[in-house]
């Protein structure tokens, strides 16, 4: 009987993996996400063991599926973070993966567990481009207004550590973060931009101004 159930579990696992590996684009992922979620639940296969194996193929579709399933299932227990950080370092290798992972997986974790700030600090020093980008984008809450609700001093410390970064996707990520932080801390971000106008790249600076009123935006662009 034990051997029989092992066979059943392995067979179900193979079926799930085949469905996931056959996903060909984002529209395909959205179409099948509920079906795959149901298959995983009915199989009693461990979610993290399954994706720890599947993500090794380093394809974008399984990775994005994972982010949707994490959000759908609200898998935000603290003990899951070891998997999430490992997946960040091993499989986040594009801005698309990075931002989806931040919005759906990392941001809810850092909002729930302030002690993860030390991990974010270490990400900002990584030699991996999209781990560094994640140390910025992970502060942005995935809501209609992409708000930021985090300790400003801690956030700006990360910004300071990356404001000299030469990679375009880091510069854009920094500008993206400052743009939405402005909605929560308008005076402080205006001051930060004025003080750092000669340090920040023009790409970062332009992105950071996008949520300001036209008059202020024009004034700062002339600095």
Tell me what the structure shows.
- With 223 residues, this protein is mostly helical.
- It folds into two domains: 75 residues, no CATH class; 130 residues, Leucine-rich Repeat Variant.
- The protein contains 13 helices and no strands.
- The N terminus is likely disordered.
Kindly estimate the percentage of residues that lie in beta strands according to DSSP: under 5%
CATH-level-2 architecture of the largest domain? Alpha Horseshoe
Number of strands: 0
Spans with pLDDT under 50 lasting ≥5 residues?
A: 1-10
Helical content stands at: over 70%
Tell me the name of the CATH class of the largest domain.
Answer: Mainly Alpha
Number of separate structural domains: 2
Structural class by helix and strand composition? mainly alpha
Outline the fold blueprint.
Elements: H1 2-21, H2 26-43, H3 47-54, H4 60-73, H5 81-91, H6 95-112, H7 117-124, H8 129-137, H9 152-162, H10 168-184, H11 186-195, H12 202-208, H13 214-221
Helix pairs in contact: 1-2, 2-4, 4-6, 5-6, 6-8, 7-8, 7-9, 8-10, 10-11, 10-12
Brief synopsis:
With 223 residues, the chain is mainly alpha-helical. It has helices spanning 2-21, 26-43, 47-54, 60-73, 81-91, 95-112, 117-124, 129-137, 152-162, 168-184, 186-195, 202-208, 214-221. It folds into two domains: 1-75, no CATH class; 94-223, Leucine-rich Repeat Variant.
């Amino acid at each position: 009987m034990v051997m029989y159930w092992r066979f059943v579990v392995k067979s179900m696992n193979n079926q799930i993996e085949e469905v996931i590996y056959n996903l060909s684009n984002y529209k395909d992922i959205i179409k099948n996400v509920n079906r795959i979620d149901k298959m995983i639940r009915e199989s009693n296969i461990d979610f993290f063991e399954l994706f720890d194996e599947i993500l090794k193929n380093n394809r974008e579709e399984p990775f994005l599926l994972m982010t949707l399933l994490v959000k759908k299932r609200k898998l935000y227990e603290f003990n899951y973070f070891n998997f999430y950080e490992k997946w960040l370092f091993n499989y986040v290798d594009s801005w698309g993966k990075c931002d989806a992972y931040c919005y759906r997986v990392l941001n809810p974790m850092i909002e729930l567990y302030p002690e993860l700030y030390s991990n974010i600090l270490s990400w900002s020093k990584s030699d991996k481009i999209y781990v560094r980008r994640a140390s910025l984008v992970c502060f942005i809450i995935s809501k209609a207004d992409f708000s930021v609700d985090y300790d400003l001093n801690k956030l700006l410390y990360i910004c300071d550590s990356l404001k000299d970064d030469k990679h375009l996707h880091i510069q854009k990520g920094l500008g993206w973060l400052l743009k939405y932080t402005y909605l929560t801390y308008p005076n402080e971000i205006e001051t930060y931009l004025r003080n750092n106008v000669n340090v920040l790249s023009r790409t970062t600076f332009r992105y950071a101004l996008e949520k300001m009123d036209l008059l202020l935006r024009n004034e700062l662009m002339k600095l």
